[in-house]
Structures are given as C-alpha cells and as structure tokens.
Amino acid sequence: MIAAGAAHRFTGAAADPYILQYGTVQGYSSFRSCLAAFLSDATHHAVDPDELLITAGVSHGLDMACRLLAGPGAAVLVEAPTYFLAGDILRQAGLTLVPVPTCAEGLDIDALDVLLQQPQGPRPKLLYTIPIHNNPAGTTIPLAKRQQLLRLAHKYDFIVVADEVYQLLSFPGEGVLCAADFKYDQHLYDTRELNGLRGVCAICSGFRLLCRDAVTMGDSSIKCMRLPQGRQLCKDGVLNSGGSIAPLASGVAHSCLELGLLQQHLHKAIRPSLAEGCRAVCEALREEMPSCSFQQPLGGYFVWVQLPQEVCAEELLQLAAAKHSVGFVPGRACEGLRHMARLSFSFYRPRELQEGVRRLAAALTDYLAGDRHA
User: Fold this and answer.
1) R_g over Cα of the chain
2) Which of 179, 186, 282, 318 lies deepest, with the highest CB count within 10 Å?
3) pTM above 0.85, yes or no
4) Which CATH superfamily does the domain covering 268-368 fall into?
C-alpha cells in the first residue's frame, strides 16, 4: 500500500513538484480536503477541511494542545487508568495532572461532575480522554455520557482533548460511535454562548495505527475550536517556522486515500486481523486464567485484565519476562491499580497470542505458589 501510494504521488499522474516546498501551516489544502472526505464517510459526520491541522502524530497534537491551550501551571483532568506515556507529555508541558476515576463505560462522568462541584476542586484548562476503545481499558464512552461531558466542559470552561487513535478500529460488525458524535449537541459549539472564550472539544487522530506503523503522521481535528482557539494552534512557532509537518508522508497518505488503498487495507486487513487477535487472547484468558477477569473489547488494541487481588503486576512482569519470556504493561504504569495488566493483541498472530497467554498463566501459577523471584 505504501509503495503504491508513494509511486502515485511522486512518479505518477499525481506527482507534485511543490510537495518539497514549505507548505501552509495546516497542511496542504488538497490533502486536507481528501482527508476530510475520508473522515466524513468513516464517521458519518461532515468534517470541514478548514478544521483539520496536520501534525507529526497524535503525540505531537497532544503536545501542541497542552502548550497552546493550557500552558505551565494549568490543571489537566486525566482518566485513570490512561495511556501510559501520556503523562510524560502532559507533565513536560508543565501541567498538573488531576486523576478522574473510570468505570465499565470509560471515564466516570458522574464522578467528574462531583469533583468539579467541590468548592476547592480543580479548575482545569483541559481534560484528556481516550473515549473510544480506550487504551488500556478497551472501553467506549456512551453517547449520552459524552454529551454530559461536553455540558460539564461548557459549564466549567475547559477543553476536552479526545485522543481518537482507535476510533476507526472497531471490529467488523461492531458499530461504535466516534468522538465526532459529540456534534449531536450543536449548541455546545456556539462560541457566542461561551462569550467567544473557547470551544469545548479538540480531536486528535492519526494514520499510524491504521497503517500498522507504516506512516507517522497525524491529524488534529480542531472541531469546535473555533476562533480564536483554532487560530491559536496554527500560531505554533514550530509550524510557522518549518511549514506544514511531514509533507512527504502527507503526500503518500493523500494518494493512499485517493486510490482507496487505505480504506481497503483498513476494512479487509486491519480490522479483521485485530478482531481475530482479540478473540484469540480472550478465549485463551478464559481457558488458561479463569481467576482473572476482563471486559472483552469491541475494537482497538488492548485487553485490560484484572489479576487476583494479591498479585502485584510489576512483580509478575519481572517473573514472567525472566522465566517465561512474555511481557505486558502493568497497571501502575497506566496510572491504574497494582493488580491490573494491559495485554496487546495488535502485533502477533492468533497462535502466538494464545501461546503468550499460556506463558503468562504459567508465570501467574508460579507467582501464586510463592515464586516471586525473577
């Protein structure tokens, strides 16, 4: 797919000699138009090309949001557990992390409401969430709860930064709403109601996970970050100095979309492969580790496993890696509980995934029998 897209963009009829020049800050317009059409079709909601800003990946988009929409000393609400590397990005931007509990449906919006009502509670600038096929928990926030979240953002004047890297990775036959469904309550995006201060949602998504790490390029969908906040991100010093990010990768992605290669790859290869891997892991967990519990995901990359209460996942990881040559991400790394573990089904084949679970089960047996040493 990547080779075909590159050939089309650089040597074929679509070859553009200006692609190596400094581009517009948001990314070149024909690509953003093509990307907007793709996202509109994929999410069933109209996406305006002018609401898109091309970045060097979702992490880059998150960093920009932290620096330009919050700044040092500001508070950011973060669901716990969360993506285990997000905290570094937030802290390096000088933000203070305030954890918010989660539940079986993802971010616990009712608990958030109680937290914000407290007289001495946080007054955040941002809330960071992975609303769809959450990393690590695999949960998806229901539409009604998303609408409730936006009302809270409107009321308490903070921006929801929705990390949507898994939004298009629902398994075949699993219709999961994307964060663009926030648009059901259009009045929440009317800057007049907010006295021109801010919109309430920024959406970061990317191609990397769709292409299985073939292309590093993201798009920050600045929905409802209407003036002046949309312009604020476009005033980033790095973008203004260097021009649009990743023009070559943008060109390849443009051709992959234009030729329908990415759409075919996503629907015929990636989503079925992930679904198969997830089934393999979950079936093996039920058979090999009945003392553990989990919620089977409907998409994404991960299964969030609750180990027996007496197990420290970090100690188990050391034992599992040293004696059984298998690994996972322990819960504490994700701002989660000590007896939780994140298992990934995104890379290995089903048979290898099942073998990995068997090895983890053997490590757990050793651990519960008193062998705590790597």
Assistant:
1) 21
2) 179
3) yes
4) Aspartate Aminotransferase, domain 1 (3.90.1150.10)
